[in-house]
Specification:
The complex is a heterodimer of chains A (232) and B (418).
Chain A: E1 4-15, E2 21-32, E3 36-41, H1 47-54, E4 62-67, E5 70-71, H2 77-87, E6 88-91, H3 103-114, H4 119-132, H5 148-160, E7 166-170, H6 178-195, E8 198-202, H7 206-210, E9 214-219, E10 222-228
Parallel strand pairs in A: 3-8, 3-9, 6-7, 7-8
Antiparallel strand pairs in A: 1-2, 1-4, 4-5, 9-10
Chain B: H1 8-20, H2 22-57, E1 64-67, H3 77-81, H4 105-114, E2 118-133, E3 136-145, H5 147-154, E4 160-163, E5 174-178, H6 179-184, E6 192-197, E7 202-211, H7 216-219, E8 222-226, H8 227-234, E9 243-248, H9 254-261, E10 268-271, H10 272-275, H11 277-315, H12 317-325, H13 330-364, H14 382-408, H15 412-417
Parallel strand pairs in B: 3-8, 5-7
Antiparallel strand pairs in B: 1-9, 1-10, 2-3, 2-6, 2-9, 4-7, 5-8, 6-7
The chains are: A alpha/beta (232), B alpha+beta (418).
Bound molecules: adenosine-5'-diphosphate and magnesium ion.
Residues 47-48 of chain A line the site of magnesium ion.
Chain lengths: 232, 418
């Protein structure tokens, strides 16, 4: 049995505006290290809301969240920021790169913030991360000169720079064509299998979901099903 | 790197922001520049005016004047001492004539000269007199003076219109008249004038000089003779003076020093501030105007920066959200935006110092020929420049801090959820 990367216990969340409405209903599940998990469900079922809680960005919920044996209940915003920086890599549907910076600079940012490695080491690591996504030759370009698919891959490189234990994506391939989608899928797969990094991705793409290790389905804020793909 | 007080990464992001929004940055820089240069110009100009005004005032007013003050009003002395049941009736009350002037002046001149702040002391014997030319008779003041010391205190020689000032020293019958007085008497250089005191002492003088200060009150009434001659006319001895006039190293300290001197000198020690409250009030008012106007301009500049920084924050809100999602905390976000406004403040401030100096020099050269002036007055105190820069930085700091604080409070979930 491998170690747990993440453990969600009885997570509930309410929205109070425009009226009180329970968006997540007592959701519990564990994710092992190195697992590649897809989160699916109809639009409005609460996938994004759950992912923001799992990623520690949203702290307004009931229940418990444990990541890498850290119970994240009651931690301050600054402590959580530090935690995210070191343990969680993010990929969003919209890439959110800093347009004034080159691809390389963007990728280096989270590592510079973490401040553990020297600038030279970080740069080398950033090149490596870009190379993994086939973007080494684009490193010195400003990100607003890159195509949508390239920008999304830069965002993924950035998410990998601090070797996070968990990589989270909210429809990371939502804006990509099928070719780029399969590139991103392969990379996630490779990260989970070869580096033991955990991947949790919200997706609408059935192919993407069916090829991942495990699929969680949400329905009206409740966990409807939890299926593992048969291992060969 | 995150352990450093100001993270290099944050500064780098700040630079990227301001250089990517060149137009807004220039507007923000210019508003600081404008505020600071106006601060410098306004304060330089106002203290220039104050300086001129003071210089003019000090041509007739010493920093400190010592004289024999008239005794207090004592007409009510009885009512003050008796109870209610006593009726007092004073008939034919008279004020006794006290001796005027300062006896033993040497002693007090010595005290003044021993005081380190005192730079020059001029003894005077001033008499109310009539000037006569034939049947023309005009009253005025005869100043018995030592020409060198008088000049040291009042720069009287600078205002000489014709003739010679220092000759007073050598001629017991020499007199220097104010220009207005000479005109009213229809007299010119080298003419004779008769001076008589209230006690009826009369003496003939020869006009050896005429002064013009442009102050009518001086030019129309004042005349100068050797101090010993004035003493003779009053039949007083060689140590008698009516006034001791002294200038000190920093005239703003006159009131304090006057109070201090009052302890060792049994006469009235009067500072210029006490003697001419209007001058003091006008100076203070002008300083207040200068500070109020320049701070208002800085405030407006502050609002400009505040607006621009707010716009920047709104424009970069997605970047802020992603930075926070990646682990940048509130302090980092404050640094990123505060650094931008401080950079704007420093650049705008430095240009403002140069521009303020430039404007000052320009205005300083504007011809302005009124009274003794040639050009518009201007001062260049380094303190004004230091304060202008300081206030400019404070303004940009505060104006930048509020939007930065707002940026640091951005909830990334709200933004990323869209
Ligand atoms: N800030 C919010 N305030 C109120 N309701 C919200 C807010 N954000 C999302 N919701 C609602 O919560 C539900 C779940 O939203 P979301 O998690 O974005 O769904 P999904 O990502 O699965 O499409 C939806 O009904 C949505 O309208
Ligand atoms: Mg969603």
């Amino acid at each position: 049995m491998s170690e747990l990367a993440l453990s969600a216990k009885n997570i509930s969340k309410y929205f109070y505006v425009p009226q009180t409405f329970q968006v997540l209903k007592e959701i519990s599940f564990d994710v092992k290290k190195g697992e590649f998990l897809s989160l699916i469900g109809k639009s409005g079922s609460g996938k994004s809301t759950l992912l923001y809680i799992l990623s520690t960005l949203d702290t307004d919920y009931e229940g418990e969240l444990i990541i890498n044996n850290n119970n994240l209940r009651g931690k301050s915003q600054n402590q959580l920021a530090k935690f995210r920086n070191a343990h969680i890599g993010f990929v969003f549907q919209f890439h959110y790169l800093l347009p004034e910076f080159t691809a390389l600079d963007n990728v280096m940012l989270p590592a510079l913030k973490l401040g553990i490695k020297s600038k030279e080491e970080i740069e080398a690591k950033a090149y490596e991360s870009l190379e993994l996504l086939g973007l080494k030759d684009q490193a010195m370009k400003h990100t607003n000169r890159l195509s949508g698919g390239q920008q999304q891959r830069v965002a993924i490189s950035r998410a990998l720079i601090n070797d996070p234990t968990i990589i989270m994506g909210d429809e990371p391939t939502g804006n990509l064509d099928s070719k780029n989608t399969s590139i991103v899928f392969d990379i996630f797969h490779q990260l989970a299998k070869e580096r033991g990094q955990t991947v949790i991705a919200v997706t609408h793409d059935d192919d993407f979901a069916n090829n991942s290790d495990r699929v969680l389905e949400l329905h009206d804020g409740r966990l409807l099903s939890d299926k593992y793909r048969e291992q060969k | 790197m995150s352990k450093q007080l100001l993270s290099i990464t944050n500064v780098k992001i700040a630079f990227a922001h301001i250089s990517s929004r060149i137009k807004q940055t220039i507007v923000a820089v210019l508003s600081v520049t404008f505020g600071i240069s106006m601060y410098i110009f306004m304060n330089g100009f106002m203290s220039g005016v104050n300086q001129t005004q003071s210089d003019l005032a000090f041509s007739t007013l010493a920093n400190i004047r010592i004289y024999h003050d008239l005794p207090e009003d004592r007409t009510n002395i009885l009512q003050r001492t008796e109870g209610e049941e006593v009726i007092t009736h004073i008939r034919n009350a008279k004020v006794i004539q006290y001796t005027e002037g300062i006896k033993n002046a040497e002693k007090y001149i010595h005290i003044l000269n021993q005081t380190p702040q005192v730079e020059v002391v001029a003894p005077e014997v001033n008499i109310n007199v009539f000037f006569r030319n034939g049947s023309l008779k005009i009253n005025g003041i005869l100043n018995g003076i030592d020409p060198e010391q008088e000049d040291a205190v009042f720069h009287t020689a600078d205002y000489l219109y014709s003739g010679s000032w220092n000759e007073i020293k050598h001629r017991s019958d020499g007199i220097v008249l104010g220009k207005g007085l000479a005109r009213k008497l229809s007299l010119n250089l080298n003419d004779k004038v008769i001076v008589s005191t209230a006690e009826g002492v009369t003496k003939h003088f020869t006009i050896i000089g005429i002064t013009e200060t442009t102050l009518a009150s001086v030019d129309n009434t004042q005349a100068y003779v050797r101090i010993s001659t004035a003493r003779q006319m009053l039949s007083e001895n060689m140590s008698y003076v009516t006034d001791l006039q002294a200038n000190i190293s920093d005239y703003n300290q006159a009131a304090v020093l006057a109070q201090q001197l009052n302890r060792s000198i049994p006469y009235k020690v009067e500072s210029w501030q006490e003697a001419n409250g209007q001058l003091m009030a006008a100076n203070t008012l002008r300083n207040i105007i200068a500070v109020a106007v320049s701070l208002t301009i800085l405030l407006v500049a502050g609002f400009g920066i505040y607006n621009i920084m707010n716009m920047t924050v709104n424009e970069k809100i997605r970047e802020i959200a992603i930075l926070k999602a990646m682990g940048f905390d509130g302090k980092d976000i404050v640094q990123i935006f505060l650094t931008q406004s401080v950079i704007i403040g420093i650049i705008g401030g430095l240009i403002g110092l140069l521009l303020g100096y430039g404007i000052s020099v320009l205005v300083d050269h504007v011809p302005f020929k009124i009274a003794t002036l040639e050009n518009l007055p201007m001062t260049y105190y380094s303190m004004d420049y230091v304060l202008a820069f300081f206030f400019g930085l404070i303004t940009t700091f505060i104006a930048g801090y509020l939007p930065s604080k707002k940026a640091s409070k951005v909830d990334p979930v709200d933004i990323i959820r869209g």
